[in-house]
């Protein structure tokens, strides 16, 4: 854990080092992935069966075994505790409500020259959702990825999830069902991404692929990009907590550890204006680590990437936060809404002392798929906008064309695009 | 040019071949580009000077020569014909008005559990705009790329443009000035992209890079993606024209050629329900080609990638159009607005017989940077949304947390993320 003090001369160098800290090393898997994609394109379902036997630790009986049937889903989800299903439903309902509010209106733009201009939003036809099968098989991620697509109006939502030994996580299936996933396949890795992008005899191709995955999945998404859309490749998760000394140090400590327990590359940063409070939080982190089931992971993250930054005044904290552009930001300050107005870059903000980031991971309503690694400077969390696209349109009458056409002709000629100019000029009334 | 007739047995195979037609071969330049980016990161401005001398055909006197001064812009634009400046201004004003209408509102979402939820839009701090220096140095592209950023509220818009021999296109500089570009550098290639992404002593880094370029520029954007945002890598341009026999065949022919004159990889497709009209357009294309200044390019595009498709009825044409998902779509039909409702995928639509696509390239108002190569299935044209990002936020009171917190705890425990659960549970009132 790094301690930085804005009052010291070495602060700027230390903060710059924090900003540049590489938290991930990406394995080079491009050649292996290219080979898998080529195999799926060439041999379709047969390649999927081969790859599943080779990489996923089980041998499907045939192509039919790759698709998870409605009966299997019903059987798998029957044993889930009702309280847990109720929690899942509360989460889904709140996520749906928030994302429904994002849905944009079509535009018709008034035009002084008498044309009619507009912009129309339409949903994608089909989306693929990658769900990791290992330790990161999170039902909450299924809700967060599938519900915005469903709210946007996407017709087909095809989920792929690797099934080590053929078995699936029942709560993941329940989440898929609640979120309106239309098809589930027990396939994973680069082969699943290839099947979604190119299609096979048994899996129809989709238009966009979203969802987290390992290095093979990330590289496969990169390689099929263009053929289909993809979401951004998420890096390790991070939180910045701004907290003054009126907070309970233990609350802040557990909030930091909630981030740190994701994996060893996660990052948790506290910024405070009180040295004593900083010490108290540091001590509370150590105390909490001792009893935390994922304490080894969280401790490693905290030692490697954690930081406590002491500032002289809050404007300094806001400026540092804008440089960090964090994925998650907790504003545990007396006037958190006013503080948020000073922040230009953050994926998601959590205001006040009753709003731990974990609330947003599950039930608050906004999406938990967020821009990491300072990309909140230019990127946003997942939303209905990711599952809609825009068509702009123009309707011109002869009079409208006559009003603005000559300018188009002049510019086309200046650019040396004479057929462009001629396509307008031919339709203009004779000069007179 | 391919003639297809939907009444024939071989139609589906022919149409599938049209859909799969590869219209571009991408040179492998990744190693060369990686080397250039590494040089700019390591040596900054000195590497920019070296690369400019090596690749751009002129030797800058020093770092100061890379930046285009306000005096240089004033001198270069002084000689532009007033009529042309007026056309540029009309285009800019109309593009501004249309993009201003796109600006979304912040959300505050009512919540039944008593929390406050919202979503806020903020502009990017800084954007880089790549402008090609060769045959494709189009002032209209400067307007289309820079104005949405300006309308979004981006503070810094840094333009880079290679200057063979050090000279720049005056109308490109006038467009930059009109569009609110804040800095212009006469650099290009992968080195310019690297400088925008990583910054040098004389060029501050940006958050997103947009604008078209050659294979080196496209690969450089790919390689800096993640460090900064990028726009999509545009492929060759295309148009689909739906026209019935009441149209003037010559109008349709010139519209097809306006697309074809862009480059040999461009594609122009006519879909009609009248065989005689199809013949008339084909003949008119040949006649117009003879007198077109860029006839060699347009002819090559038409022969290689052009197509005329004959359908039995318009619903068939709409279905084929959805499979093509064209960048540009002209609907030269009696009820174009009704036809547009049948189209799910198109970058931009032009309605009626008085609305050639070239109007949209220059002055209509919507953006001319559009998704190519069937990517309109999932992608959209450039807009203010490309220069804004969203921050979602949640504010919870103790009562709000108590209402939904237990569900978060249940889901966190089910996912094995105990610090997540604990960060919520610690703040809940004692169970009683």
From TrEMBL, chains A, B:
The active site is at 327 (proton acceptor), 328 (proton acceptor). Its EC number is 1.1.1.23. Pathway: Amino-acid biosynthesis; L-histidine biosynthesis; L-histidine from 5-phospho-alpha-D-ribose 1-diphosphate: step 9/9. Binds 1 zinc ion per subunit. GO terms for molecular function: histidinol dehydrogenase activity; NAD binding; zinc ion binding. Keywords: Amino-acid biosynthesis, Histidine biosynthesis, Metal-binding, NAD, Oxidoreductase, Zinc. GO terms for biological process: L-histidine biosynthetic process. It catalyses: L-histidinol + 2 NAD(+) + H2O = L-histidine + 2 NADH + 3 H(+). NAD(+) binds at residues 130, 191, 214. Its cofactor is Zn(2+). It comes from the Bacteria. Zn(2+) binds at residues 259, 262, 361, 420. PROSITE patterns: HISOL_DEHYDROGENASE (PS00611). InterPro entries: Ald_DH/histidinol_DH, Histidinol_DH_CS, Histidinol_DH_monofunct, Hstdl_DH. GO terms for cellular component: cytosol. The keyword Metal-binding applies. Substrate binds at residues 237, 259, 262, 328, 361, 415, 420. Belongs to the histidinol dehydrogenase family. HAMAP family: HisD. Catalyzes the sequential NAD-dependent oxidations of L-histidinol to L-histidinaldehyde and then to L-histidine. This is Histidinol dehydrogenase. The gene is hisD.
